[in-house]
Amino acid sequence: MSARQQQMGRPGGARFAQFKLVLLGESAVGKSSLVLRFVKDQFDDYRESTIGAAFLTQTIALDDTTTVKFEIWDTAGQERYKSLAPMYYRNANCAVVVYDITQAASLDKAKAWVKELQRQANENIIIALAGNKLDLVTEEPDKRAVSTADAEQYAQEAGLLFFETSAKTAENVKELFTAIAKKLPIEQATQRGMRGAPRAGVDLRPEASGTQAGQGCQC
Q1: Is residue 72 part of a domain?
Q2: CATH number for the domain that contains residue 40
Q3: pTM above 0.90?
């Protein structure tokens, strides 16, 4: 059922729209942990690396009449999967690019993903930059390798939403996805139906076939 059909079946002018969201970033920055916290409000200290990508969904009620459904592709961060990323961010309405605030190199990788999205993805894509593992620097400030001010300045210059998050404590996780939802063209989606809904997933494991939902990468 399309977003338009679902919206039309709701009472009193309620609006419902679904959007494709992709997560990108280096391995072990906590992409899957962020999604797990957002979708199931759970956190696992030890998670296996994602193979290819995992697919999840979650809805957000922005107010009494507006509901946004995210169809989420959580991509693997290992370098060997990088060339496959375009099949996941193609036609995406929004993206979360994640880095680890205790690893400066992960921000460099995040910046490279942002450039790639801005060059090759949907020209209207909403991009959020998430500095994850805030809990680590709360406990031990000396672990911070990327200052909030530097990352925020970069995000402003690149036109990105910006949050520092902790998948472990849930700090700013819901706020991150809510901010993205508020930036999306909900009115257009409910009027026209979503054109950017994700296609069936592609299993990237050579020994299997069909839609694949791998386990999340390390937190």
Answers
A1: yes
A2: 3.40.50.300
A3: no
